[in-house]
Amino acid sequence: MAPWHPVANAHASEWLLRQGAMDAPYAVVRRFAFGDPNRPELWFRVVTWAPRSADRELIGWCRTLEAAAAAGWDHRCASESWRHHLAAKRTDAATMDRERPSAADLVRFYRASLRRRPTAGTMERTTSGRH
User: Of 34, 56, 57, 80, which sits with the fewest C-beta atoms within 10 Å of its C-beta?
Assistant: First the structure.
């Protein structure tokens, strides 16, 4: 008989996303299987990190673990960018909390801004070298 170990039946269902091994998590991804148990449809839900599940906010649903991890990372980047933008305008913390967009909106706005940025190869030059 071939050796068997319980880990052969183990399937990861939740991932804490962190930048470094010792850093605090910035998002949580959970795997869900729907439909036929023999051929389930897999989805991955990504939420913001908070110690209590009730304090987490939905970032979105994705079809792959890779897409969910990317959404979590983009939320982290978007949150930092948004916070720095308001801090540069000397916005107080209470106003930041009141005006903060949803996690899903932050990711959507962040990704849209990345699509609008010109790349060096597509920038037009003027005769003076300035844009």
Answer: 34
Encode pLDDT of 98-116 as tens digits. Answer: 888 999 999 999 999 888 8
**What pTM did the predictor assign?**
0.77
Tokens 């269902």 belong to residue: 13
Alpha helices in the chain (DSSP H): 65-88, 93-99, 103-116
The side-by-side arrangement of strands in the sheet containing 58-62 is 14-17, 27-34, 41-48, 58-62
Which residues are paired to 42 by β-bridges? 33
Contact 16, 28 (CB under 8 A): yes
Q: Read off the DSSP letter of residue 122.
A: G
- Packing angle of the helix pair 65-88, 103-116 (nearest 10 deg): 90
pLDDT single digits (tens) 47-84 = 999 999 999 999 999 999 999 999 999 999 999 988 88
Q: Which residue has the tokens 């209590």?
A: 52
Element (H, E) at 16: strand 14-17
Which of 42, 52, 57 has its CA nearest to residue 106?
A: 57
DSSP β-bridge partners for residue 1: none
